Amino acid sequence: MQLEKTIALIYEQDYPEWLEITLNQLETHNLENVDWEHLTEEIAALGNEQKHKVESYLRQLIKHLLIYKYWETEKSYCAKGWIEEIDNFRAELDLLLESKVLYNHATKILDKIYLKARNNAIRKSQLSATIFSESCPYSLTEILDPEWFP
User: Fold this and answer.
1) Each residue of 60-96: pLDDT tens digit?
2) Rounded to an integer, what distance in angstroms lies between the CA atom of residue 6 and that of residue 34?
3) Rounded to a whole number, what is the distance in angstroms from the first to the last CA of the chain?
């Protein structure tokens, strides 16, 4: 019990050391003294972080696709930069969405994320909200396709 308290204290004072100790305990199957409370917390946080990344990259990607499609007055000056951003967000998502769990999450939240991206695109472009569809006009397959542009 004393060792568990010591390891929990290390978590609070020296996170990298706690990681090293915990990894060693798992690798050597020394499960009696693992700081389960903090380990469980860290694993849950890691999963949430990955989901947040998917949501953020997807929102930015959709925002740029909308701007690319509708912001005609800026397109001749900015399209190249928008395409670069679109490519970057697609590349990041491609890596994350290799996980079936994260891909399913993206599918589930697409409509919610679209509304956020739509609002971002409206604010950035200052175009009328009426030109943007109120529901996502693109499939996830189209959004992620490196050759597809609206």
Assistant:
1) 999 999 999 999 999 999 999 999 999 999 999 999 9
2) 11
3) 61
